[in-house]
């Protein structure tokens, strides 16, 4: 079935296309690719920034918003934090054997002040760190957990390898040339194979058509034997249905009924309910559907009508056809619609991942990271307060009012339209946190981090939350903060909330009815930071929107799609798919759905007993076991001859020879000689090989045949 | 008799017989069809499977006169057909009818009688008449022979010659019942079932001579499409060309296949034959008519295997595949 091979080739091409699409999609996870894309978009954004985004900022109110309303007292936040950090998943707080990675070592600055909530962090910091070369190499955003992921312990004193160590394998020039030649040879072979299949299928089809035309032509000079002509079987349900209707319109109701019934059977075959074979009757098919009563009933009813039309006295008429059509057509159409709906639902379902059975989004990425650098604790605190926390997968430009707060961390790849939309969204009264992305900060009138934040860290006047904390013993003390972040550059219209020796650490500005908060990096929200001192109380007091959805915009924001079709369009696969669809349409119009003409399979006959005997004889021949064969054959033949001549009575060779000579008409001496040689062979299974074994066997065989039996 | 009446009578008769003979639905149906197709049946099975009970019940349900001949090695042809006996008082020969003069004849263990006794049934089965001393005596109508034989014992038996086997329309093989059916048989006996007193079981007489003859006549009205004729011919021809077959089925087998298919069609409420009818009866009609090659027999191939392989090769008419 060369045309079927063609279908396979097309399927392979489609798979390759899909693979390409997946590869493109996976580029979003490649840090280098993402960084380069991000850099490009940021460069473009920077060029357009002044002209496009400065205008709305001019109109913005620059005083800090005073509508902060913390939902919990500092003591409550502290208590919740302790309970959360005690969870076993935060191993850096609870596991005495926890080993820090190199990139986690800076978080040890929080260890001293985190002892009350996170007692084991100090222990971990006192231990040598693990090598993290096998980590994802990302800047803290995509760490999966604080577990040791098989990294080897670095021997003390060994220097760390450079971070951007090149890993590209350089091949010799000769090998490169060879690979290129092989590649192009493979491509050429593939093209030639496709062309060969296409031409072969085309010529085969033309030849079949000519054969059919010749066979149908009554004036053909040499009509071929029907058995020699390949039988063409239509197996396409849609074409059978259409052909049945056409036959009925032309008044050929017998053929129409045949086609209609064939369509039903082919449909059942496609559903894997039946296997159509030439020797099977309608009764066989009905019995085969024993486990599907609905189909069995339909097939039985239709089969009766069809058999009446095919073998009855009256044949088929329009009434019969219409009655059958009314039963069969809805089934076929219904099945097609159901199949389409099922496929649509499945494809839609395939893009709605991330929800568990309860409808909540499973935390993943940085939000599920329980290592010191992760944000799992922050997410947990927010969720305890009734917030819905999730990653933003869809485009930032599609933000709606359901989302009350957006946290943009440092590796986003938002485009111009996204930043524009974000500005409008904030102006509508929402809250935006920008964590350490200098370009992002500049879109909103801020700047990136500069020098390190050195103590003392102090709350500024504009900080909206409570400034004191009541300890368990009733002591009231000022809010104590720790940080390993940098400081933000001074900016005229930004209002600092927290400052350290080098400058402001957290600043804020209002934009329309909303607020934009600037952080130097992700660290203030990290697990290690929140368990330290009163950082958690500080951070939670900055969250103002309630009850709302809090979304985190990272590297994958904008990479998702609402539907598979959008995903394909985003991957710029539309033209390719359109070409494939057009090709499929052409093939469908030319060959129908199966893309092949079914033919009878080659007959495989069962081996005859004689074949087995012949094969066994050849084995004997190869083994040179002539004497052995003659021994067995002589024993059998002598017994057989004796039974035929005088059953139940044993005779001597002379007596037997005389009787056989009389029956066969052969000379008695010749018969006795043959019998004597056979008797010798029978009695001496391992006697000397004379070379006449085959002759003796032939003569003995002749006697067996001539006495009226099989050899 | 129209189609509905035929079908109704047939189902009713099957139902009544099955009140007594449990778990043998196929055998009952095929025996009835052979009767309505004017054929005779050879039933093969080990003793104790209800072969005699089947025939007796059938005679009761069909309202036919029933006689049984136990075939033994010393049974003479005149013991079957009857003969002329000299009446000393009237000083003349008087024809004494043998047991063959009945409507339903059970030839029990037919292979235990010698060939000449078996041959005495030949004319009766084929021509429905008996010729003795030049005088032909017609047998009553309907005339139906059910012969039984035991496939296991071979000592002291006389296998039926091919010519006589060919006279039987069907050869049926009775199998052991399932454990569930056997349990039900025991329960029936526990509740007082007596095979000699069928009236007590509530077996009714469903048909009579006239109905049977009318039903036999109705079979001739069933239409057989040309494709069906070709299908029958194809199957029978394949038996002659099969590598494992020494002697294939005769044209009489084709005729038997045709008549049984027509009867089955009517029994199923149709006035036309379909391929299923042919396939259903191909085994029963052909299995005793095939003579296998010795090497095929050595390999353990049976007639049923050959027929099954032929049915899997022969394309059915109007096939979709």
Task: Summarize it.
Chain A is of the alpha/beta class and 711 residues long. Chain A is built from 23 helices and twelve strands. In chain B, the strands form four sheets. A five-stranded parallel beta sheet of chain B has the order 2-5-8-1-9. Chain B has a two-stranded antiparallel sheet with strand order 3-4. In chain B, strands 6-7 form a two-stranded antiparallel sheet.
Rg over alpha carbons of chain B: 20 Å
Query: Biggest sheet of chain A, strands in spatial order?
Result: 1-12-2-3-11-10-9-5
Q: By helix and strand content of chain B, what is the structural category?
A: alpha/beta
For the largest beta-sheet of chain B, the strand count, sense and barrel status come to: 5 strands, parallel
Oligomer: heterodimer
Structural category of chain A is: alpha/beta
Mean pLDDT of chain B: 88
| Principal-axes shape call of chain A | elongated
SS elements, strand count of chain B: 11
Name the chain pair with the biggest interface and residue counts per chain: A-B, 27 and 32 residues
The rounded distance between the terminal residues' Cα atoms of chain B is 38 Å
The total of beta strands of chain A comes to 12
Q: Please, what is the average pLDDT of chain A? A: 74
């Amino acid at each position: 079935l060369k045309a079927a091979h063609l279908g396979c080739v097309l399927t392979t091409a489609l798979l390759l296309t899909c693979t390409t699409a997946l590869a493109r999609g996976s580029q979003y996870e490649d840090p280098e690719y993402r960084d380069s894309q991000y850099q490009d978009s940021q460069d473009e954004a920077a060029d357009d920034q002044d002209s496009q985004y400065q205008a709305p900022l001019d109109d913005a109110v620059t005083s800090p918003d005073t509508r902060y309303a913390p939902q919990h007292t500092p003591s409550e936040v502290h208590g919740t934090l302790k309970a959360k950090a005690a969870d076993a998943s935060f191993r850096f707080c609870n596991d005495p054997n926890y080993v820090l990675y190199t990139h986690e070592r800076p978080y040890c600055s929080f260890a001293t002040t985190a002892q009350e909530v996170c007692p084991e962090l100090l222990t971990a910091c006192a231990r040598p760190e693990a090598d993290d070369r096998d980590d994802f190499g990302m800047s803290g955003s995509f760490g999966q957990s604080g577990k040791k992921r098989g990294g080897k312990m670095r021997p003390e004193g060994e220097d760390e390898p450079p971070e951007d160590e090149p890993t590209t394998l350089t091949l010799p020039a000769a090998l490169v040339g060879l690979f290129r030649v092989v590649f192009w040879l493979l491509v050429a072979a593939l093209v030639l194979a496709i062309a060969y299949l296409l031409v072969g299928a085309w010529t085969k089809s033309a030849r079949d058509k000519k054969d059919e035309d010749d066979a149908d032509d009554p004036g053909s000079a040499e009509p071929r034997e029907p058995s020699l002509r390949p039988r063409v079987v239509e197996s396409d349900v849609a074409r059978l249905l259409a052909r049945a209707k056409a036959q009925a319109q032309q008044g050929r109701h017998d053929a129409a009924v045949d086609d209609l019934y064939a369509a039903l059977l082919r449909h059942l075959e496609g559903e894997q309910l039946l296997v159509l074979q030439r020797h099977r009757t309608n009764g066989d098919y009905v019995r085969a559907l024993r486990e599907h009563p609905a189909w069995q009933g339909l097939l039985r009813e239709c089969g009766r009508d069809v058999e009446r039309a095919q073998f009855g006295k009256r044949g088929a008429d329009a009434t019969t056809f219409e009655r059958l059509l009314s039963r069969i057509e809805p089934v076929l159409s219904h099945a097609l619609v159901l199949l389409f709906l099922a496929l649509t639902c499945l494809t839609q379902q395939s893009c709605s991942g991330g929800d568990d059975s309860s409808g909540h989004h499973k935390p993943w990425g940085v939000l599920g990271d329980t290592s010191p650098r992760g944000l799992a604790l922050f997410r947990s605190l927010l969720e305890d307060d009734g917030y819905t926390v999730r990653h933003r997968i869809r485009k930032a430009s599609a933000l709606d009012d359901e989302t009350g707060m957006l946290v943009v961390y440092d590796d986003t790849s938002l485009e111009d339209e996204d930043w524009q939309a974000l500005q409008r969204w904030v102006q509508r009264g929402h809250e935006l946190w920008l964590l350490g992305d200098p370009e992002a900060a500049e879109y909103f009138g801020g700047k990136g981090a500069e020098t390190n934040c050195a103590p003392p860290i102090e709350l500024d006047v504009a900080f909206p939350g409570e400034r004191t904390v009541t300890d368990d013993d009733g002591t009231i003390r000022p809010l104590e903060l720790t940080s390993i972040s940098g400081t933000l550059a001074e900016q005229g219209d930004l209002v600092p909330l927290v400052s350290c020796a080098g400058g402001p650490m957290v600043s804020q500005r209002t934009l329309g009815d909303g607020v934009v908060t600037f952080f130097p990096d992700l660290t203030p929200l990290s697990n290690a930071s929140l368990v330290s001192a009163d950082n958690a109380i500080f951070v939670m007091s900055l969250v103002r929107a309630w009850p709302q959805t809090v979304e985190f915009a990272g590297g994958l924001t904008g990479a998702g799609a609402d539907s598979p079709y959008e995903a394909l369009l985003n991957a710029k696969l539309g033209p390719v798919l359109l070409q494939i669809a057009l090709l499929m349409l052409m093939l469908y119009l030319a060959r129908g759905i199966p893309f092949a003409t079914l033919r009878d399979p080659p007959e495989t006959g069962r081996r005859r007993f004689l074949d087995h005997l012949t094969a066994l004889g050849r084995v004997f021949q190869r083994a040179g076991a002539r004497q052995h064969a003659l021994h067995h054959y002589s024993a059998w033949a002598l017994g057989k001859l004796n039974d035929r001549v005088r059953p139940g009575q044993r005779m001597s060779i002379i007596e037997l020879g005389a009787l056989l000579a009389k029956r066969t008409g052969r000379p008695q001496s010749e018969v006795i000689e043959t019998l004597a040689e056979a008797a010798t062979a029978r009695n001496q299974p391992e006697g000397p090989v004379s070379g006449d074994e085959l002759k003796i066997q032939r003569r003995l065989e002749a006697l067996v045949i001539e006495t009226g039996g099989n050899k | 008799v129209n189609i509905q009446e035929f079908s109704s009578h047939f189902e009713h008769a099957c139902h009544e017989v099955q009140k007594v003979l449990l778990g043998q639905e196929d055998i009952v149906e095929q025996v009835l069809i052979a009767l309505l197709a004017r054929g005779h049946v050879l039933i093969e099975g080990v003793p104790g499977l209800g072969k005699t009970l089947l025939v007796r019940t059938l005679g009761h349900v069909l309202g036919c006169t029933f006689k049984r001949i136990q075939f033994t090695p010393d049974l003479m042809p005149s013991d079957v057909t009857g003969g002329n006996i000299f009446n000393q008082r009237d000083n003349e020969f008087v024809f004494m009818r043998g047991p063959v003069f009945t409507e339903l004849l059970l030839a029990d263990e037919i292979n235990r009688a010698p060939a000449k006794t078996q041959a005495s049934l030949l004319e009766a089965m084929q021509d429905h008449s008996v010729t003795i001393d030049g005088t032909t005596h017609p047998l009553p109508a309907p005339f139906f022979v059910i012969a039984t034989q035991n496939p296991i014992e071979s000592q002291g038996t006389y296998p039926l010659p091919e010519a006589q086997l060919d006279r039987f329309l069907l050869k049926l093989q009775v199998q052991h019942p399932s454990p569930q059916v056997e349990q039900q048989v025991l329960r029936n006996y526990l509740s007082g079932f007596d095979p000699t007193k069928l009236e007590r079981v509530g077996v009714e007489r469903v048909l009579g001579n006239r109905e049977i003859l009318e039903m036999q006549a109705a079979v001739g009205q069933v239409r057989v499409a040309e494709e069906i004729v070709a299908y029958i011919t194809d199957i029978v021809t394949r038996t002659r060309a099969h590598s494992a077959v020494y002697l294939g089925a005769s044209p009489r087998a084709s005729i038997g296949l045709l008549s049984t298919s027509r009867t089955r069609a009517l029994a199923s409420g149709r006035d036309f034959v379909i391929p299923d009818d042919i396939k259903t009866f191909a085994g029963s009609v052909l299995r005793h008519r095939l003579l296998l090659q010795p090497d095929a027999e050595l390999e353990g191939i049976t007639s049923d295997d050959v027929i099954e392989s032929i049915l899997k090769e022969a394309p059915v008419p109007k096939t979709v595949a």
